[in-house]
Amino acid sequence: AMSAPITQRVLAPAKVNLFLRIVGQRADGYHLLESLMLPVDLYDELRIAVDNDAAPHVTLRCDSPDVPADTTNLATRAAALFLQQTQIRAAVDIELIKRIPPGSGLGGGSSDAGATLTTLNRALNAGRTADELAAWGARLGADVPFFVFGRPAFVEGAGEVVSCLAGWDRIPLVLAFPGIGLSTAAIYQQYDARRDPRRSLTKRVSATSIADFATSGRPVCELLVNDLEAVAAELRPELLSLKSLLVQLGATGALMTGSGSAVFGIWPTRTAAEVAAEVVRGRGFWAVAVETLKVSPAAA
Fold first, then answer.
1. Distance CA 100, CA 242 (A)
2. Contacts of 148 (CB under 8 A, 6+ apart)
3. Are 66 and 104 in contact (CB under 8 A)?
4. Cα dist. 251→141, 267, 277, 284 in Å?
5. Which of 38, 85, 114, 137 has the most beta carbons within 10 angstroms of its beta carbon?
6. Residue 222 carries which DSSP code?
7. pLDDT digits (tens, 9 = 90+) for 85-117
């Protein structure tokens, strides 16, 4: 019987790294990291149309000129990889409405890819586990496995080791972006060039100690550290002025997320965060108030 294509609408959240430490490097050059990642309620929106009766293909349309709509797009690559791995014959057409700024370290492209994997798994009744989808996601990018699980997590390795953590209450944040993205690859190259080889890498943290932190009642600001921030600030000095601005406006702590160039500040209430975001926008920067999520709408 002919089936009309089914369109699934899914929200793909941004993320912040409350901390990000570089703890080593694999033989293939990939950096090993430890990070506490939390999804937040700023979303790209995907409309994924799936047709089992059409010749297999993947297409993507995007409302933003800054985003590649070709085979380099992570959502396109995620769909192609899914069809290849499951051997399912279907046409997948993706419409992407972009709200997470590209090049910001907020994980937009990776989130789109994670949402594509979980949505196709459901839409095509493929019955793959979150672990399987995350393993495929790891081939696309370091942040994709995190988005397959879509909940607060301690992330290790080259992003493929994800330990979901309960107990993180919703944290109000302001996200602010100077408007010029940074290339992750360029940041890591600069980091390697700057690092003194005689200096030992960061001491390892464990998933357990981070899980304990969530229930300890200690202020989350104590965690804020990002080993890539100093390097990114050399290329984008305005990062540091944005951080100071957030603190002046009442953030209890502020940090660059991912490999930048967005920064976030932590606020006591959502309302106070909204007021601060408005001020930052008044200064000509992109800024939004968000809260961290306990679970992403696109989780596997």
1. 18
2. 114, 117, 118, 130, 133, 134, 137, 162, 299, 300
3. no
4. 31, 5, 11, 19
5. 114
6. G
7. 999 999 999 999 999 999 899 999 999 999 999
DSSP 292: B
Burial (0-12, 13-18, 19+ Cβ within 10 Å), 199: exposed
Neighbours of 223 (CB within 10 A): 16
| Active-site residue set | 15, 143
Q: How confident is the model at residue 199 (pLDDT cuts 50, 70, 90)?
A: low
Residue 176 neighbours by CB under 8 Å, 6+ apart: 242, 245, 246, 262, 263, 264, 265, 277, 280, 285, 286, 287
Our measurement of the distance from residue 250's CA atom to the centroid of its chain's CA atoms, rounded to an integer in Å, reads 25
Q: Report pTM.
A: 0.95
Q: How confident is the model at residue 201 (pLDDT cuts 50, 70, 90)?
A: low
The pLDDT value given to residue 213: 84
Q: Is the pLDDT of residue 134 over 80?
A: yes
Structure tokens at 187: 């940041």
